[in-house]
Structures are given as structure tokens and as C-alpha cells.
Amino acid sequence: MNLNGLFNMLAKMFIRNAVNTGIDYAARRGKPDAELTPEERAQAKSAKDIANKAQEAAKVARRLWR
Q1: What burial class does residue 40 get, using C-beta atoms within 10 Å of its C-beta: 0-12 exposed, 13-18 middle, 19+ buried?
Q2: Residue 2 phi, psi (nearest 5)
Q3: Burial class (CB in 10 A: 0-12, 13-18, 19+), 55
Q4: What does the pLDDT look like over 1-33, one tens digit per residue?
């Protein structure tokens, strides 16, 4: 693999990780896991599930437009 391909792969891995971390942070509304009530945990889980479905839909849309 050439250096350009390696750089692109590492950049995509970094961006993917950053996006997932941001979605998790937004779903928890900035609170640490230890401070969440059971209701807030359920709401955060549902928000993460919705975000994952939206990411999958975006992935499908990108594949369609190739």
C-alpha cells in the first residue's frame, strides 16, 4: 500500500471515531454515564439507535449516487 492510501485509511478511521464520539456525547447531552438516570440512559440509547439508522441511510444513499 502506498503512503497516500495509508494516510486516507487513517484519516477515515479518525473521522469515523470522532463522529461516533460526538453522536454519543450528544445522545448523553454532555453528561457522564455515571450521572445518567435510568430514564436518561434509555433515552440516550434510543437516540444512539436513531443516529445509527441515520448513518446507515446516509451510507445507502451514497452508494446509490455512485
Answers
A1: middle
A2: -80, 170
A3: middle
A4: 689 999 999 999 999 899 888 888 888 888 887
As a whole number of angstroms, the longest Cα–Cα distance in the chain is: 49
CA-CA distance, 55 to 49, in Å (whole number)? 10
pTM (2 d.p.): 0.67
* 2-31 per-residue burial string, b: 16 or more CB within 10 A, e: under 16: eeeeeeeeeeeeeeeeeeeeebeeebbeee
> Comparing C-alpha atoms, which of 19, 15, 39 is closest to residue 31?
39
Distance in angstroms (rounded) separating the CA atoms of residues 43 and 36: 10
